[in-house]
Design brief:
With 261 residues, this protein is an alpha/beta fold. Helix 2 packs parallel to helix 3. It is elongated and about 105 Å long. The protein starts with a helix and ends with a helix. The relative contact order is 0.11. The N terminus is likely disordered.
């Protein structure tokens, strides 16, 4: 009787050990499967992000220690508006940016927007429309001028809640210009004045620059050899009240985390 009980105990112990080994093996398989799935998901996500960057210069930044989901938008080259520019031109197409800004506002995940700017300007109507859209976002926004912010790029820079400019970047302020055939009539002048007033009013509302000061910089005849206007480099833009602060990527992201709070 004692021998039978001993055999039974040994058999039970063996079965328990066998079950434990089996469970462990299955657990390892599950773990291995999960790792493979995560690896595949990460690879697919990286591929999607690379395609986004390649096609539109846009990406979501969410690997930060602050656990904030930031949407990076770039305004690069010439702002393309109602007419297509030549293929060799580096452009920002406003019909791509407008729906993206709407989707950012509609998203519950995106917490803030970082606007990287390096533009020579472009279509006045399209640029001002983009600036109005950026200014109307309820999410915290920060702009960073990394190269140039010329012409209609100025309203885009000041449209955000806070702005930065790297020390070597430039901003050019000049009167409204138009290419193509222009009728030399008083009505044409008045039309140009209306467009310019819209731009001036927007910049004044979203910066610390006075209207008289801005218009004086636009009509400056001493700086540009073939045009009217003023060039501001880095700290100059801050001193004139157009940009909040001199800084780079680190400062811009830290400020955005702070604004998100």
């Amino acid at each position: 009787m004692q021998w039978i009980e001993s055999e039974t105990i040994n058999q039970t112990a063996f079965e328990a050990e066998e079950k434990e080994l089996k469970d462990r093996a299955e657990g390892q398989n599950v773990s291995s499967s999960e790792r493979e799935e995560k690896k595949k998901t990460k690879s697919e996500r990286m591929e999607i992000e690379e395609n986004q960057i390649r096609e539109t210069g846009q990406v979501i930044l969410d690997g930060n220690g602050e656990k904030k989901k930031i949407y990076l938008l770039t305004i690069i080259g010439e702002i393309e508006g109602h007419e297509n520019l030549p293929n060799h031109n580096k452009t920002t197409k406003y019909e791509h940016i407008l729906p993206k800004l709407a989707s950012i506002e509609d998203s519950e995940e995106i917490e803030g927007v970082l606007l990287l700017i390096n533009t020579v300007g472009g279509d006045v109507s399209a640029g001002l429309a983009l600036a109005e859209m950026v200014a109307s976002l309820s999410k915290p926004t920060v702009s960073l001028v990394i190269g140039d912010s010329h012409s209609i790029g100025v309203p885009l820079t000041v449209a955000t809640d806070y702005s930065f400019i790297v020390p070597s970047a430039t901003m050019i302020i000049h009167p409204v210009r138009m290419n193509g055939t222009i009728i030399g009539a008083r009505q044409t002048y008045d039309y140009f004045q209306i467009i310019q007033d819209r731009i001036v009013d927007f910049i004044v509302r979203h910066s610390n620059t006075e209207k008289e000061q801005l218009e004086a910089m636009m009509m400056n005849t001493k700086m540009l050899s073939k045009d009217l206007g003023t060039i501001l480099v880095g700290e100059d833009a801050v001193r004139e009240g157009l940009v909040s602060e001199v800084g780079g990527m680190k400062e811009a992201l830290n400020k955005l985390y702070q604004l998100i709070g």
